[in-house]
Amino acid sequence: MTNTVLEKFHRGEPSLGTFTQMLSPIAAEILGYTGLDFVLIDMEHAPLSAQSAGELIAAARGSGITPLVRAREISRSAVLQPLDAGAMGLVVPCVETAEQVHQLVQWAKFAPTGNRGYCMTRDDGWGFAPGAAPTLETYMDESNRKTLLLPQCETAGCLARIEEITAMEGVDGIFLGPFDLSIALGCPGQFDTPVMREATERVVNACRENGKLAMVFSGSPEATRGYWKQGFHSAAMGLDTLVYIQAYRDLVSRTKSEA
Question: For the chain, how long is the longest CA-to-CA vector?
Answer without folding.
Answer: 66
